Amino acid sequence: MRASLIQIAVDEGESAEARRRRAASLVRQQAGAADLVVLPELWTTGAFAYEAFAAEAEPLEGPTYELMAKAASDAGVWLHAGSIPERDPEGPLYNTSLVFSPSGDLAAAYRKIHRFGFDQGEAVLMGAGRELVTVRLPGTTLGVATCYDLRFPELFRGLVAHGAETLIVAAGWPERRRAHWTLLARARAVENQAFVLACGTAGTHAGVAQAGHSVVVDPWGEVLAEAGSGEQVLTVEFDPARVAATRDQFPALKDRVLGLEPPTGA
């Protein structure tokens, strides 16, 4: 399987609509080069452009949906179209990822569960998702996560329990914590014996420099490919069958112990 991670740059001088058209063109350029294409988190607005969330929020089947569905169909690829600020007419805003099939149909939508901000920013401006999301592809099952989710291993354990073999992380990760980005991507791969495809943004969001360095990690924690800091399309070929082989060769997941008792006297 070939995957292309589109590490798009967010330029504050470029409108969201212009970036949508540019991203759709980049997706279409992957026709014949990739089976799976991944975009990062909140690339239409910038993950730290909190003031723009409400103004740029769109319904699930809004302009990003329409352009990305067409791009997936034109390219004939599975497309994780990154995330958008979703406006739910009956609720709050959500940080919502969209996954399209090669026919352009919506295969899944994932509302980010762990919101970043420590009682400010995204944590107060957006609602929290409640459902794990997996997507069955020919040859592998995707588990979908977004940015700050990467710090919560129990979410990924849940995805693996529901069949995930390839973990997709769309992010707008800051440069000042780039070391954590690579470390956590490798940790999630090792502990779940899964591929991790982590796609971040380049550029600057509301004055916050982005880490870039999108990365693909194999089930043993080895980095197969890593981008630089600028806008880049990172394409890598990987064998999903290595997940089952790794789990068979080193069956650590079988030794998980759940439901332990609390400490005596707690």
Automatic annotation (TrEMBL):
Keywords: Acyltransferase, Transferase. GO terms for molecular function: acyltransferase activity. InterPro entries: C-N_Hydrolase, C-N_Hydrolase_sf, UPF0012_CS. The keyword Thylakoid does not apply. The keyword ATP-binding does not apply. Residues 1-240 form the CN hydrolase domain. Belongs to the carbon-nitrogen hydrolase superfamily. NIT1/NIT2 family. This is Acyltransferase. It comes from Streptomyces longwoodensis.
